[in-house]
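dumping this here so i dont lose it
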């Protein structure tokens, strides 16, 4: 908006103000009469061609107390005084009585006339006609009466008058009582003229409220779509302004609550208060908080404090208290916003001219509205509808202001986005330059790293050859040892297991050096007793090296198959046993394994307790806290034969892996009496059905030759996969295999007529319906000479319990799961008395 346009708007507002003042003065002059102030006015004549007429200058008024009778006796004798212009008495409790006398000047002007009494916010209206029998009530209207009880359905008070055809005068009395401002505008209408007036009024009001509805809905949609608070605040402002107009114009009672009474004054007061509160929020749209933050903060807080303080009075219907304060607040608000708009305009705010024109229009209406309510201005078309006109112009200009505000925000957003984009492009260019420089440096570093990696690869290749070659030789020569002697077979197996474990550790070390190793556990279904059996065999050799005795103590409640990393668990236990063997001479080394029954046990998880105890030199109390540190060496044993050895990395690695398994390790020791390392590791239960075929058997690099031609083997195993793998291995060596899954099937097979004894029975221990003891007893009873070999997943089943029925004739041999195929062939050859065939080509293990 340019400066000349703003000057034009301000000039227009001043012209409207002057027109209102002149109109009021003319109305007052026209209403002046020379008659006595205490005498009755002359009857107002209605010419034949008249279709409507204002009763300005034809009214007399008197104010009477409201605590008397509704119609005082001798009302006609009261001191009615002529009214100059429209009657007005401001706010008050007295009842205002108006008297007027009309007559038809021609028979064509006699008959039905309609009396319109405005404004719509009057509480109680009642019209009486003076007859020889006294005053008769013609009808009632106002906000305190249900709309359906009005004589004629209209937002203003509307009454039907009958003028006699004899052209005689008729006197009427209008009773007006209201907590709002006491003012009235009386107009006589011919019914057809009023119908035309109603059409024009409906079109005008429809245009006004339609524009309000359109502006509010559009602001709400734009605010929700753009997520712009300014539009949402403005939509709420339009909505409460529309409600205020619906109430003050009488449409709310006509459309919203036609049968209710007593709601008008509380609702109107509340709407006026909310309009004042939302009006102060327009400072956000004007962005006053950016230019004048302190003033905006004080202004909003003050207005909302006033709204909160007056809200209880509004709900109680004390409109005569709320209205003057709110009108004064409107005036102050309009003056303040107009002044702020001028300041912001001078500061270059683009939306300031629109806000200036908008609030200047509202300020003019407010300045005239308050004197009108106080009865200081005449009631005519302009003063009665000035709020609607000014509100229409105000909201139209506010729409332009909000639209310009949103455009300014979008422009600022676009500018900020472009600035960020330019900064990003500039940063990207700088980053690209730095990346190129860094890439060149990394390429050079990569060449150097590749050269170093090549050198490391060559070194590892040599180390791999130097470490693996001796271990491969050990494994090979252990395989060549004679297997006819059981003792030699057991020793060869121990050598092979130890060398295989050492080879596994060497491979892990080399993979770690190459960067291919992982610090994560590889959990899989594992035979817990199988791991413990392998550990016990190696621990026996370690203990005997220093003339120690090894003891394995197992709890019967241990689960057979668990989810664990068997390789890491074996490494942890061997490290502890090696440490115990290193510091113990001519003593006892014990490995105790049990289930923790105190806490943490669930149907799916069992905390397993491992305890490695020795009778060695012990650890001083001051060193126990540091014993799990890498390369720890005790000062107390530095002068002994063990002091120079230290503990190396074994215990530190053990502690690390135990923590990764979710467990913990505790150290107990007394100097000179030995040490105890206690591990608590929670292990989830598993079953053989969870295993894959490679986990069920333990293969060897080479298998001893075995010829089972012409021999039948009964294989009793409830796990179908293990049964299939063992049957395949036995068939490869020439045996005929009979599959059985339970001890009951063994009994049924033996009970068949003509059943022949097998050459060998291989049986699992834990099976549904009967364990391996039942199979052993059945075979011993019918075929005492048939050898029975136990295949067990638990160490506790390897030795027959005391007092057992077949205690004199236990199993001929036993093997721990996972079954080692080399040990299986050696055991079968031994129990069947087969000779080794050195010329036979060894079988390769099952892949």
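and the seq i came up w/
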């Amino acid at each position: 908006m340019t400066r000349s346009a703003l000057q034009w708007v301000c000039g227009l507002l001043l012209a409207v103000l002057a027109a209102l003042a002149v109109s009021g003065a003319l109305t007052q002059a026209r209403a002046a009469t020379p008659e006595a102030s205490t005498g009755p006015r002359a009857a107002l004549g209605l010419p034949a061609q008249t279709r409507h007429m204002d009763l300005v200058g034809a009214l007399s008024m008197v104010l009477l107390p409201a605590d008397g009778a509704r119609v005082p006796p001798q009302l006609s004798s009261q001191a009615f005084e002529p009214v100059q212009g429209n009657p007005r008495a401001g706010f008050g409790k007295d009842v205002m009585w108006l008297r007027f006398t009309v007559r038809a000047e021609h028979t064509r002007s006699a008959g039905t006339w309609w009396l319109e009494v405005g404004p719509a916010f009057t509480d109680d209206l009642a019209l009486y006609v003076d007859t020889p029998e006294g005053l008769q009530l013609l009808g009632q209207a106002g906000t305190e009466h249900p709309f359906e009880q009005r004589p004629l359905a209209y937002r203003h008070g509307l009454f039907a008058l009958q003028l006699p055809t004899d052209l005689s005068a008729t006197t009427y009395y209008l009773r007006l009582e209201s907590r709002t401002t006491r003012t009235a505008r009386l107009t006589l209408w011919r019914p057809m003229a009023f119908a035309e007036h109603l059409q024009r009024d409906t079109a005008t009001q429809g245009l006004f409220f339609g524009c309000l509805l359109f502006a509010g809905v559009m602001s709400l949609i734009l605010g929700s779509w753009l997520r712009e608070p300014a539009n949402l605040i403005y939509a709420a402002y339009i909505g409460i302004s529309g409600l205020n107009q619906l109430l003050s114009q009488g449409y709310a009672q006509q459309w919203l609550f036609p049968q209710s009474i007593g709601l008008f004054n509380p609702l109107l007061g509340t709407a006026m208060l909310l309009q004042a509160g939302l009006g102060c929020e327009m400072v956000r749209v004007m962005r006053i908080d950016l230019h004048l933050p302190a003033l905006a903060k004080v202004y909003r807080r003050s207005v909302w404090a006033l709204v909160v303080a007056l809200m209880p009075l509004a709900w109680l219907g004390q409109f005569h208290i709320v209205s003057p304060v709110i009108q004064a607040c409107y005036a102050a608000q309009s003056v303040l916003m107009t002044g702020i708009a001028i300041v912001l305009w001078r500061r270059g705010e683009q939306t300031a001219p629109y806000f200036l024109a908008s609030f200047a229009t509202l300020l003019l209406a407010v300045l005239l509205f308050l004197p009108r309510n106080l009865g200081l201005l005449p009631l005519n078309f302009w003063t009665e509808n000035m709020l609607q006109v000014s509100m229409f112009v105000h909201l139209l200009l506010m729409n332009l202001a909000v639209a310009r505000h949103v455009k300014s925000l979008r422009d600022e957003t676009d500018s900020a986005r472009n600035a960020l984009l330019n900064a990003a492009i500039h940063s990207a260019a700088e980053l690209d330059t730095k990346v190129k420089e860094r890439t060149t440096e990394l390429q050079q570093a990569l060449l150097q790293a590749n050269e170093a990696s090549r050198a490391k690869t060559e070194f590892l290749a040599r180390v791999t050859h130097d470490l693996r070659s001796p271990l491969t030789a050990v494994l090979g020569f252990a395989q060549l040892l004679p297997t006819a002697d059981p003792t030699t077979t057991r020793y060869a197996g121990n050598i092979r297991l130890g060398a295989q474990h050492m080879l596994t550790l060497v491979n892990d070390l080399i993979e770690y050096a190459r960067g291919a190793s992982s610090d994560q556990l590889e959990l899989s279904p594992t035979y817990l007793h199988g791991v413990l059996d392998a550990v016990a065999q190696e621990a026996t050799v370690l203990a005997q090296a220093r003339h120690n005795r090894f003891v394995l103590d197992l709890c019967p409640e241990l689960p057979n198959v668990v989810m664990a990393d068997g390789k890491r668990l074996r490494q942890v236990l061997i490290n502890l046993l090696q440490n115990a063997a290193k510091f113990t001479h001519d003593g006892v080394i014990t490995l105790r394994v049990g289930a923790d029954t105190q806490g943490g046990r669930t149907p799916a998880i069992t905390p397993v307790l491992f305890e490695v105890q020795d009778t060695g030199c012990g650890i001083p109390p001051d060193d126990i806290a540091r014993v799990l540190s890498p390369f720890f060496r005790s000062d107390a044993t530095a002068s002994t034969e063990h002091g120079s050895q230290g503990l190396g990395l074994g215990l530190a690695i053990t502690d690390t892996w135990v923590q990764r398994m979710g467990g913990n390790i505790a150290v107990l020791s007394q100097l000179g009496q030995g040490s105890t390392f206690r591990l608590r590791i929670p292990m989830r239960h598993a079953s053989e059905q969870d295993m894959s075929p490679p986990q069920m058997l333990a293969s060897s690099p080479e298998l001893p030759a075995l010829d089972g031609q012409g021999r039948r083997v009964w294989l009793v195993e409830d796990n179908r996969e293990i049964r299939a793998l063992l049957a395949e291995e036995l068939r490869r060596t020439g045996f005929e295999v009979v599959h059985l899954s339970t001890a009951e099937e063994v009994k049924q097979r033996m009970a068949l007529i003509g059943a022949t004894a097998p050459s060998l029975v291989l049986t699992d221990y834990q099976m549904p319906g009967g364990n391996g003891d039942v199979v052993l007893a059945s075979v011993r009873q019918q075929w005492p000479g048939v050898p029975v070999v136990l295949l067990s997943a638990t160490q506790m089943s390897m030795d027959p319990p005391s007092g057992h029925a077949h205690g004199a004739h236990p199993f001929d041999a036993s093997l721990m799961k996972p079954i080692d195929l080399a040990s299986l062939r050696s055991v079968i050859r031994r129990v069947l008395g087969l000779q080794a065939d050195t010329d036979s080509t060894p079988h390769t293990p099952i892949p």
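The CA atoms of residues 66 and 770 lie 109 Å apart.
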